Predict the 3D structure of the following.
Amino acid sequence: MNQLKFVINEVRATGHCLLQITFADGLKASVDLFDVIIKHPTLARLINPEVFQQVVPDEWSRGIVFRGSDDLTLASDNLRELAMEQACKYSHLNAFAQLQRHGPS
């Protein structure tokens, strides 16, 4: 995963369960994590704004970590996919799913 589109240059919390992420390829994306947090009990601590606000890129800039806890991490490819879905754009995972459903044309 050395592609620039998966390298996170900057991340900051901008609101309740909201992030602004800048990827190395220049994409600046807003991501709403509320639904993800609710679906995954292991992320429940992120509902607390004090925990959520303490977000930084991980050691290799291929994900993010909250409050320095390895239990509270999210991968950059998943964050980018979610950002693209929320922005109503087509992502690489949508393309793969389309290929699986309909085969190559």
